[in-house]
Amino acid sequence: MSSLLENKVCIITGAAQGIGHQIAKQFAADGAIVYACDRQEFTTDNERIHPVVMDITDAASVKAAFMQIFKTEGRIDCLVNNAGIVYNRKIGMILREETERMFLVNVIAVLELIQLCSRLMARNGGGNIVNIASVTAVLGSPGQVAYSATKGAIISMTKSAAKELASQGIRVNAVAPGIVKTERFKELYESDGDKIDARIGRIALGRLGTPEDIAHACAFLASDRANYISGQILGVDGCASI
Ligand SMILES: NC(=O)c1ccc[n+]([C@@H]2O[C@H](COP(=O)([O-])OP(=O)(O)OC[C@H]3O[C@@H](n4cnc5c(N)ncnc54)[C@H](O)[C@@H]3O)[C@@H](O)[C@H]2O)c1
User: Fold this and answer.
1) What is the residue with the minimal CA distance to atom 7 of ligand 1?
2) Is 189 a catalytic residue?
């Protein structure tokens, strides 16, 4: 029996740590050839994971890296747009510079990656893209007005790109995680533990998400089992958003 992502060539951004790192490990375990991109250098002993140092806001280095992957592998089957940044600020404290940086990394760079990757995928008759949104885009979250707006943009972009790229055989979906226990969560908990405890209390399944929960959803959407699914936003949030 073949694995879920047997020999699929998959690019994952923001894969040095947190959710992206787990997505890379899960995709490799499911048989994919993984190009794990991050602006931070990192190493792995997993022979199916190829680290690529790349800042997704640097269009020239992104193009060079993607063309090299395409030349080496002859195709790109899947792109997971996971890299993202967050600045948590109450409305009165929002700084324009941070908002612009969030939109550049979380939205504009993602749009440009979709643009470049879809051209390469189309050369081989298609592929699929999984974007990482957030439950905050749907529920709202105090202190995350600007961040949640970037994730709302990801949801809109996912739906429009899915419609536009369908004729080229490219599916586009998003996973919208709830609160996930990552390095970033630990920092947030230290600064705002009471608020987080209250949010955990509203998760029907009674626990935080894990990077594994998110990675499993991404692997499914990236696989041929999801061949008739496009333009969807899959909440992976323990039933917090309905
Ligand atoms: N952790 C959560 O609770 C949670 C919840 C909802 C959505 N998300 C989303 O999931 C994704 C991953 O979150 P995480 O918690 O693992 O974050 P993280 O900060 O732990 O990891 C993000 C990774 O992206 C990389 N990165 C950031 N900017 C980059 C750039 N310009 N170019 C290349 N790499 C870059 C970082 O170096 C880092 O390795 C993000 O898009 C985030 O918004 C996270």
Assistant:
1) 134
2) no
Candidates 105, 17, 27, 125; CA nearest to 62 is: 105
The segments of the chain whose pLDDT lies below 70 read 1
Give residue 150 CA to ligand 1 midpoint distance, Å. Answer: 13
Instruction: Report yes or no on whether pTM surpasses 0.90.
Output: yes
* pLDDT at residue 196 in the model: 80
Output the CA 79–ligand 1 centroid distance in Å.
15
Provide residues with CB under 6 Å of ligand 1.
13-14, 16-20, 38-40, 55-57, 82-86, 105, 132, 134, 177, 179-180, 182-185
How many Å apart are CA 91 and CA 133, to the nearest integer?
21
Q: How far is the CA of 86 from the centre of ligand 1 (A)?
A: 8
Alpha-carbon separation of residue 93 from 32, 48, 90, 137 (angstroms)? 43, 44, 5, 20
Question: Which CATH superfamily is 9-180+210-236 part of?
Answer: NAD(P)-binding Rossmann-like Domain (3.40.50.720)
